[in-house]
Design goal:
The structure is a single chain. By secondary structure, this protein is of the alpha/beta class. The protein is built from nine helices and 14 strands. The protein has a five-stranded mixed sheet with strand order 4-1-5-14-6. Strands 10-9-11-8-12 form a five-stranded mixed sheet. Strands 2-3 form a two-stranded antiparallel ribbon. The longest helix has 26 residues. The termini are far apart. It binds glutamine. Glutamine binds next to loops.
Length: 259
């Protein structure tokens, strides 16, 4: 082989190596996956709770926010925290979205942006199965009531005359106190009460009376990030149109959404 040919081969290999190196560096320079950090109080079945086997966060809100993330081209990272810490975390920029069965209220809407409503809820009263004295809101007067801290249930309980209201970190803890006889009633979100009783509590507890309120759940974003709020509303709309929202709803509630 002539020196010229060898030189050409070496040159060729050199060019190829450069090309490959180029590919490599292109890969590492690829844009990072876009992630939204979603804050949630994850003891609120069937909206958010930890799957016992997989340890993954699951539930209606979790499926919905993952579907919304996918629709927007974002990966979703769930950050579990106390319910009363969610809005401060959003304001501090530690999370981007709240998906936590959060009721849209005027007071909260001063601090955060809410998406369009995604679930119709309300509050109900839970008592022990053998309690025949508490049948309505009025019967709660002077009683011991358990609620979850920072919730609309806590706000409603504070309106009951002479009641002693005790705040717990989440509904399961409030239900446990009811079962133990430490309180007379729990005021909490209807779908969560119904799910608790259907899953584990039908011997111990029952719902009494009509729903006390009518509430809408919304996804919350920071007022500083209006763009994300708009994207979420758009994705929610798309999921409602393409049937994905209905699929998730039926999976968790066994019925189709009302509208
Ligand atoms: N919907 C109720 C509220 O917003 C309770 C929410 C919750 O406990 N995750 O206050």
């Amino acid at each position: 082989m002539s020196k010229k040919i060898i030189a050409l081969i070496v040159l060729g290999m050199f060019v190829m190596a450069l090309g490959l190196a180029g590919c490599g560096s292109e890969k590492s320079a690829a844009p990072e996956k876009k992630v939204i950090r979603v804050g949630s109080e994850t003891a609120f079945a069937p909206f958010e709770f930890q799957d016992e086997k997989t340890k993954e966060y699951t539930g209606f809100d979790m499926d919905l926010i993952r579907a919304i993330g996918k629709q927007m081209g974002y990966e979703v990272e769930i950050v579990s925290m106390g319910f009363d810490g969610l809005i401060p975390a959003l304001e501090a920029g530690n999370i981007d979205v709240i998906a936590s069965g959060m009721t849209i209220t005027e007071e909260r809407a001063k601090k955060v942006n809410f998406s369009n409503p995604y679930y119709k809820s309300g509050l109900t009263i839970v008592v022990k199965s053998d309690n025949n004295t508490i049948k309505s809101f009025k019967d709660l007067e002077g009683k011991n009531i358990a609620v979850q801290i920072g919730t609309t249930g806590a706000r409603e309980a504070s309106k009951v005359k002479n009641a002693k209201v005790r705040e717990f970190n989440n509904p399961p803890e409030a239900f446990m106190e009811l079962k133990a006889g430490g309180v007379d009633a729990v005021i909490n979100d209807k779908p969560v009460n119904d799910y608790f009783i259907a899953q584990s509590g039908s011997k111990d507890a029952k719902v009494v009376g009509e729903p006390l309120t009518s509430e809408d759940y919304g996804l919350a974003t920071s007022k500083k990030n209006a763009e994300l709020g708009e994207k979420i509303n758009k994705a929610l709309d798309e999921l409602k149109k393409n049937g994905e929202y209905e699929k998730i709803y039926v999976k968790w509630f066994g019925v189709k959404p009302a509208n």
